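WARN  no MSA supplied for this record, continuing single-sequence
INFO  ligand: FE2/S2 (inorganic) cluster
INFO  echoing inputs
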Amino acid sequence: MRTLPTAPDLLSHLATVANGPLERATGAHPALYLSEEIASLETDAIFRRDWHCPGLAAEIPNPGDYLTFTIADDPVFCIRDRSGTVRTYANVCRHRMMQLLEGSGCTSRIVCPYHAWTYDLNGRLIGAGHMERTQAFDRKAICLPEIRTEIWNGWIYITLDPDAGPVAESLAPLGEVVARYGMENYVPVVREDHVWNTNWKLLTENFMEGYHLPVAHKATVGAWFPVEKTVFPEGVHDSFTYQTFQKTGNATYGQAHPDNTALEGDWRNTSVLPTVFPAHMYVLAPDHLWYLSLRPRGIGQVDVRFGVALAPEVDAMLGFADERAAWIADLVTFFDHVNTEDRQVVEGIYAGACSSHAAPGPLSWLEREIHDFQKYLSSRLGTGATP
Ligand code: FES
Ligand SMILES: [Fe+2]
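INFO  complex generated
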């Protein structure tokens, strides 16, 4: 294994590129995607600090509905309590640390699969057998640690950092763009978890540029976007970036349903593609949305959560169960195809980054969001110098 540059050297290169103009920007140093030292800095300065998205609040609509997630390797679960509030708890039993819940589902109480300690939907211990002789045991004092949770335009955001600023504040300028779609009313139809063999930043960067659409996605969505019409936000934001596309008339998905009376003019065939740093990204179209939420799994693997939701008027037109299932199956097959195309390229870039001949090349104006991401990474990771 060749020796990689140190974190301070990599971060110095990153800062130079990030602080320079886009017209002179290049990709990051390949070792930024391979360095254990950088990954460890990312865990502390990014994944334990920023907000992460386990999914849409509408994926857990009823009391007792839950879904599991991890932040910086901390297992957590989001659950809707009896008052209708979405809460997040550490997914770790207070007895002997067993993980309590797996996957997703609905439950009236949380029963540990090891010795059946039982918690209510607010994390309070309500039952534990054979503890009557244990003097140190005080059932009423035991509760699962709660994780900060905010709902923003239908998304669940969670953070381990008690001092992180509110999502509503940091994403306010993005809200002005996306609020017109009413995405909090979109109806979730699919959620899948996958593991891809790449560094999480390469997948994030791939999402952020439409330059590859006519090439890597020529068999699917590539023909639907005149990429030269891509629009980026004015100015650079600390917590997110995005681009907008207008879809052409031949697009199978991406145009407003006739019953959609909220979107007007060009917005009826415009999609917004936000990336909320570090690792939540979605395509918000007038008729559907799909999202990715990433969690690094070491250097060369990433946990990918993929979900799809439909605009309410599209969901309403689907009618009977069989027709609905067939329509959704077609849509999912289509987006699975798009994901497979992306998987091939982001795994291919990771293999390329491992080469001793890898070097950062110049960026196109269509890769402007990668430059935004470099600024974000550079500001969060600092110089990498030991304090
Ligand atoms: S570890 Fe959960 S009940 Fe023992
Ligand atoms: Fe792609």
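The pocket of fe (ii) ion (ligand 2) is lined by residues 206, 212, 216-217, 342 (CB under 6 Å).
INFO  checksum written, moving to next record
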